[in-house]
Structure formats: C-alpha cells, structure tokens
Amino acid sequence: MLSSLRYLLLGLHFVIGSFLCFVVVIFRPFHPTNSQLAAKIYSWGGLKIIGMRTEAENVERLTVNQPCVVVANHQSNWDLFVVGSIVPKRTVSLGKKSLKWVPFFGQIYWLAGNVLIDRGNRKKALEAIEVTKTALKEKNTSIWIFAEGTRNHGKNMLPFKKGAFHTAIHAGVPIVPVCCNSYLEGFDLNRWNNGVGRLNVLEPVETKHLTLKDVDQLMVDVHLAMMDGIQALNEKGKTTVVS
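Below the sequence we write its predicted structure tokens.
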C-alpha cells in the first residue's frame, strides 16, 4: 500500500518537477547551471517521498577543483535523488544517447546541457570526448560521469570504462571521485524510513602530467580509492530501516 502511494506521489512529483525544469531550460537552453537546478528540483521532493535523507562530506572539493571530471559509483535510478543532491554549479553529466527519447525527462536532460553519447558508435564516442574537452577547458564546466557505464544495483563497483579518464587527461583537469554508500541494502518502498544516503567527495587526482599510457593505472588507482571510500561509508552504519 505504501509503495503504491509512493509511486503515485513520485509520478506527480516527476510531472511537476519536469514542468518547472522545462520552463527553465527552454528559456536558457544548454546553460551550464541548468543541470544543478534540475538535480535539486528532482532530488528535494524525491528524497522525501522515498523516505531517505542524505549526509555529504567534503562537498567543497567539487567546486574548489572546477573544472574537473567527477567520477561516481552508480547503483540505481534512485541516484537521481541521492547523488543528485550534491551536484554543484556549472556541472553537466555524460549520458547515453537513448536518454534523449525518454518523454519529458530526456528533453530536459538534453536542454540542460548534458552530453549525450552513442556508446555503440566509436566515432561518435570520440566526438563526445572532444565536446567534453571543450566544455572543460573553454567553458569552465565540470563533467559528471558514472564511469561503470551502467548500474551496479548496490553491489561492488563494476570495472570502469575508459572514457572519463581519457577525457580528464586530454583536458588536463583533475578527477574528483564521489563515493556513495550501499544505500540499496534494506531499501524498500513499503518501509517508512529508508535510511541515509551517505556521500563523500574524495581528494582530487591530478592528471596534468599524465598521458594516455597512464589511463589503465589511473583507472585502477581511482577504482581502489573509491572502493575503500564506499567501504568506509558503509562502516559508519548500515542504512537505518524502520518498519
């Protein structure tokens, strides 16, 4: 019963939130602060509806190190609310081209300035790297990337794709890892309280003196650091669940 009510409220929130976001992005399409505003709108109401709250550490690292490539772990569609709560100004994300065709959300996502890539087309993917490089170097805009490339469903992080690391090295900007705890453990829309989404922004990793030969080692180093970061967040206390 509670789950059904929440889905109803989420649908209403999605419609109202999308309308508000659309009003903004249609009058200033591709503006670099559109993504943050949209993330805040979706996150604010969404967290309340699903019964979660967030706690974030070292968020200032996201703004102090701009422009940068933000690398975050990706658990589920609820990341829109949980991880979206800390998206800073002048930050856009890298997403699948297919998102553009999701009714309402896809058009808002595109007009908010986010970069859409065709992962099945190598040429198009390389063109997207050039677009992100321009955004980073010439427009002072950070790029947020879920480097696993897909959702891990709250389990251990999947191996990283190389795109985020190629992009950071090409642009000579730092990588800023963002860790989120395994909030899906015990998550149930039929529970009133779905606990805490804990986030921690790790120390930036400089790439200025790296070359493409360093990509593999850079991926390993960031992956290990994030695994340790996620474990530390989980050890702070498992998600509180109240029936």
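The chain has eight helices and seven strands.
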